[in-house]
Design a protein that fits this description.
The chain is α+β, with helices and mostly antiparallel strands. The protein has two helices and seven strands.
Length: 108
């Protein structure tokens, strides 16, 4: 492991995270949780600098999983399906109430 890597648990497994590839979630506006019969998701509008960093991260991790981490806990690990260019992130799926937990953590 390098100095920028840390190990966290997710779904009962050890996951190695590279903190050098971190994109902070600096929120602009109010995040929203959405629920329908297909599942749950969270929509977030990022501040301009955070939006640029997320664009770079999603561009370099297309069709790969990225971790949504709050504090020391991985709340979700969605697969990047498209480059997020406008700072509007949609975290899906949110399993086991992860969206509601993330929303509460972002509100602190």
């Amino acid at each position: 492991m390098t100095r920028s890597e840390v190990i966290r648990q997710y779904e009962g497994n050890d996951v190695v995270l590279d903190t050098a590839k971190f994109a902070p979630l600096v929120i602009e506006g109010n995040p929203e949780v959405h629920h329908d019969p297909r599942g749950s998701w969270l929509t977030i509008q990022l501040a301009p600098e955070a939006a640029q960093r997320l664009e770079e991260l999603t561009r370099s991790h297309m069709n790969q999983r990225i971790a949504v981490v709050v504090g020391d806990k991985i709340l979700s690990a969605p697969t990047v399906r498209s480059v997020i260019q406008d700072g509007k992130a949609r975290v899906t799926p949110c399993e086991n109430d992860a969206c509601d937990t993330l929303l509460r953590q972002l509100g602190k």
